[in-house]
Specification:
It is a single chain. By secondary structure, the chain is α+β, with helices and mostly antiparallel strands. The protein has a single domain, classed as Beta Polymerase, domain 2 (2-Layer Sandwich), CATH 3.30.460. Helix content is 24%, strand content 32%. The strands form three sheets. Strands 1, 2, 3, 4, 5, 6 and 7 form a seven-stranded mixed β-sheet that branches. The radius of gyration is 15 Å and the shape is globular. The two termini are 15 Å apart.
């Protein structure tokens, strides 16, 4: 995640990756991607990604943002989804690439209160650290029972500890 900081890109882990970091401290074993919400200008983001990951492929994926893979990034079919957001008033909204952005749950682009994104905190995420929002608003919106259910089972004591402590470092 240091490449995002190096290029001064504001980011947080998003959706399932935010859930994984908050609840487990690592990517969930059944997940194949890392979702990252990046706030800013689309051209700056794309240019920064190309410089940071010159040996990776970066492509638009279904209007959602960017999918990143390649020899230095892709590991056993894992990839990174970048969701490009803008701030407008007290809301952040996904505007994707060339103005297109789809939401998994509806036909409208996702919009979130800015408090769902800012401020952020650094948390352990596998062998590295990444930023997630201080607020659990996004998780509460997209995932019911995320504090007690881990997949199809009850959360383990280790998972529950991450949930209770906020997993921040």
């Amino acid at each position: 995640m240091s490449d995002f900081d190096k290029f001064d890109l504001e980011y947080i882990l998003y959706r399932g990756s935010q859930l994984a970091a908050r609840r487990h401290g690592y990517i969930m074993e059944w997940d194949k991607d890392v979702d990252i919400l990046v706030i800013g200008d689309q051209q700056k983001i794309e240019s920064s990604l190309q410089r940071a990951l010159p040996n990776a492929w970066v492509r638009q994926r279904d209007g959602l943002g960017y999918a990143i893979g390649g020899s230095k990034v892709r590991i056993d079919d894992y990839y990174i989804d970048i969701w490009v957001y803008k701030i407008e008033g007290n809301e952040a909204f996904c505007y994707g690439i060339r103005g297109s952005c789809a939401d998994w749950y509806s036909s409208k682009p996702p919009r979130h209160p800015i408090s769902f994104i800012r401020p952020s905190k650094l948390v352990k995420f596998g062998p590295t650290f990444a930023k997630i929002p201080v607020s659990d608003g996004m998780l509460n919106t997209y995932y019911t029972n995320w504090r007690t259910k881990c997949g199809n089972k009850k959360c383990t004591s280790v998972e529950q500890n991450y949930i209770n402590t906020g997993a921040s470092r």
